[in-house]
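Quick one: sequence plus zinc ion SMILES, need structure tokens.
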Amino acid sequence: MADRFDMLLNVRNVIRMTIFFLVGAGSLALAGGAMVHSAQSPAQAPGAPAAASPQAGASAQVASPFGAQAQRSGLNIVVLDPAHGGTDPGARGTGGIRESEIVLDLATQVRRALELAGFQVVLTRQGNENPSFDDRSAIANAQRGAVFVTLHISSTGLPGTVRVYVNSDLAAVTEANGLIPWDRAQAPFLGLSKKFGDLVQAMLVQRFKGSPDTALTAGVRQLRTTAAPAIAVEISSIVVEDRAELDRMAPGVADAIARGAAAFKPSYVVANVPGTLP
Ligand SMILES: [Zn+2]
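Reply:
Sure thing.
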């Protein structure tokens, strides 16, 4: 356990160094491209959580500022976030069911379905740890051509249904230095997130009757700092008497996310600018 945790920390350090590199390179090379940085504290070390968002300048919604030299590559990474963990069990059912444990098992199945569909999967936690919101976003923000999916079990809602949430509107703020504040990282991606969310929700409603037809919007903290198309998938509900009822939903949820990601893939074109990636 300790070894794995140490390794995770090391991986994060590498990611932070990578992000710093991107921000540094991007400030010079990507004038006009959306960049994201941490607005938390000017006293933080250069390796503190921060994210470059070269995707934002070249998403399907925004004309590429990089002209004919840009190579284009598509979505190939899904960052999967089993929410909560560690000291935070998430929602708890009467029978001692913990959201943090169910979503970790669910993530294993979603990962398998995504890999079968040809995606590379990065997990924000592999065991009972509780990375911070910023740590989880930083993992996604360090990837190029990734989407982000956070997995939850709700404490409300009709049992047997599943809802997809995308972040509610955020004013896109660009600071005088051309950077987008860390807590507005999702703003340039809201349109793509909604499209991705609607596609996943459409797959879910086919399997889980009573689910919404389209993605809902909410102020989801985890999504706000994520510089990628990002959705929250929430299964109802933790109040079932036996967790087997939730476990039985996992294959259908996994399949719907994988199909939704595959359907979304053609919509998400990422500029690959030589010299800005390690
Ligand atoms: Zn939750």
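Confidence is low (pLDDT under 50) at residues 1-71, 273-278. The CA atoms of residues 88 and 226 lie 21 Å apart.
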